[in-house]
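Section 3.1: Structural characterization of target chains.
Under the original work plan, the team committed to producing a structural model for every single-chain target entering the pipeline before any wet-lab resources were allocated. The record below documents one such target. The sequence was received from the expression subgroup and is listed exactly as submitted; it comprises 369 residues.
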Amino acid sequence: MLPRVAIIYLCHNNRSYLPEVFESLRALSYPSEKLEIIVVNNDSKDGSSDWLREQSGITYLPSATNLGFAQGNNLGIRHALLGGAEYVYLLNGDAKLHSDAIMEAVKLAESDKSIGAVQSRIMLWKHPEIINATGGMVHFLGFGFVRDNGKAWDATAWVPETFLAGKAGPRNVSGTHAAPVIEIVYASGAAVLYRSSVLKQVGVLDPFLFLYHEDLELGWRIRLAGYKNVLAVDSIAYHDYEFKRSIQKFYWMERNRILVHASHLRAWTLIVLAPFLFMTEIGLILFAIKGGWLKEKFLAYVNLLSPRTWIYVMRKRRESRFLRRVSDREIVRLWTGRIEHQETRSFVVDRFINPFLNSLWYILKSVIR
């Protein structure tokens, strides 16, 4: 028997996407009696509310204020957990699904009880042959970014015989390998299936982060508790992703990058990384001056030094110790020393910065325990 799945669709001024999104949801191959579509309307002002209220067969949860990504999704997640859903699937407001997306994600999750989250292979909505994300990456300096963004999809590179980064699954009845089980650092919240029992154990998205790194931090807690985040290659979502250079985003990215490291790394690991984190801050201040976001960088420091933030970090560290079933060495095993997001690529990064950081990380991770 197939488990019950709740799809949490978070809408914030996504009116133009709604017809195609709901067409994809109604075309899913997963049995409708095992599926609940929960729509959280995050204070949309573009007519989304009127359109959604006319839809049948959905659970509609409107919010009079913009709760942000974390709290908006949490509203739907908590409803799903109370309703007995065995899995919850988060779907961005500007994303749609292939008809087999839920079925393939659930099949992979059901194959191994140690799997806590299943990332769908996210392709670009307008260019479906181009990858948006095959999982999230964490740089040892705290930066989080999606893997393979902007690369052309090549199915032959992902079969067990040629895919070197993942592990082939068990052999099927014909004697050939099943699809590879590809472990990832964390799953992007744009299109991900979470096991409900794991969420009940580790908690939901952290609203204190509000914007950016919430999915990274939840993926970290899942791994801390001894579960895996994996990629389902055959579960496909399409995301209308476009990198936006908003000045305000730098405040959240810089604040949250430091908060997550401070919340979950053991003291020894923080000591090992501290000199390099400090040097990174000097470099980032220079980049902030050049990029015109020095004010946002300064405000991030102000927030990090506030008593409220210290109390938050101390609470998170207590919770992290309670959850921990694995060492920091296991946590950082999948981290990278390379900056690979296409938006940051340059001759200097590729030829000088990445080789240096990669070599440095090779040494540093050997002394983390």
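The longest helix spans residues 267-291.
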